[in-house]
Structures are given as C-alpha cells and as structure tokens.
Design brief:
Blueprint: H1 7-64, H2 66-76, H3 83-92, H4 94-115, H5 121-124, H6 129-150, H7 156-171
Length: 177
C-alpha cells in the first residue's frame, strides 16, 4: 500500500508542526516569565529585609551609643516609685530628665515603626526587652499622670510598643526575659 504525498498533506504537516512549536515556545516563555517573577519577588523580599535591618540598626545605634548607654545607666541608678519622686528628680537633676526624655522618645519612635509595620515586634524583642519593660512598668504611672494635663496622645506609641512587647512574651513565654 502506497500513500501518495500531496502538496496539501505537506502543508498540513508543516502547519501542525509550526503550531506545536509555537505552543511549545509560548509555554517556555511563560515558564521563563514565572521564574523571573519568582526571582524578582525574592529579591524584593531581600531588599525589604535589608532596609528593615538598616532601620533597626539605626534605631538601636541610638540607644547603644555612649549617650544612650549613659542615659540607661542614669535612669537605672535612680529608680522612682511615684510621679512625685519622678517630678522631684527631674527638677533637681536635668541630666536625668534629658536621659528620661531621650529613652521615651526612642520608645515612641520604635512604637511608630511598629505601628506602621516598618519593624516587627520580634525584632524588638531581641534587644533589652527586660530593661525597656522595666522602664515602662516603673514609668507608666508618670506617663499617665502627665497625660492628664497634656492629653491622651502623650507617648501613646511607646505604650503601643510596650503592650505589643508584653503580648509577644505572653504568646512566646520561652523567649520572655
């Protein structure tokens, strides 16, 4: 049995082959685009991590600087138990007040970064959480008393940070200070 090859058969075979090659090429292009998108997403995630680390390092450099360390030590060496004690200490020792307000501003900025999702609470939970929570617990009555005269927004972001830190350690007691 002999099959007669006609011009139409050759043309149909070439069209089918061309169509199959086109489909194969299209699939390969789609796969390549998908791989490129995955690589791009990974690169974006790495860039975001790097940026977050740079911000975190910048914030932590402030508190770990000689000035920040001096502020922490000055506050640590002068514990207070009431608003009246705090008021007396800040009136008699301007260095103490500067140290106190610097730590409060550091914690306020950290709270803003946390609230705006620039930083995550687990990042903050690694650096001096015991000290910052102790500072907050000791100074919460002072902050609340000052809020009575200046308004409810006074160091509100610091409170958000501290509440988030306490909640984090409730959820992860194995990491708690």
């Amino acid at each position: 049995m002999m099959v007669e090859v006609t011009y139409q058969m050759v043309l149909n075979t070439l069209q089918t082959t061309g169509l199959l090659i086109g489909i194969f090429y299209y699939i390969m292009v789609l796969r390549n685009q998908q791989k490129n998108q995955e690589i791009s997403l990974r690169n974006q995630e790495e860039t975001l991590k790097t940026r977050k680390y740079a911000i975190y390092k910048g914030v932590m450099d402030i508190i770990s600087s000689p000035y920040g360390t001096k502020a922490i030590l000055l506050i640590q060496d002068n514990p207070i138990s009431s608003y009246e004690e705090w008021r007396e200490l800040t009136n008699s020792n301007k260095e103490y007040f500067q140290a106190w307000i610097s730590v409060c501003h550091f914690l306020e900025i950290s709270g803003i970064y946390l609230k705006e999702s620039i930083m995550t609470i687990d990042m903050y939970a690694h650096y001096l959480p015991y000290w910052f929570l102790g500072f907050w617990r000791q100074n919460k009555p002072v902050i609340y008393k000052i809020r009575e005269s200046v308004g409810p927004s006074y160091f509100r972001n610091m409170e958000y940070y501290m509440d988030s830190l306490e909640k984090y350690f409730e959820e992860h007691p194995e990491l708690a200070p």
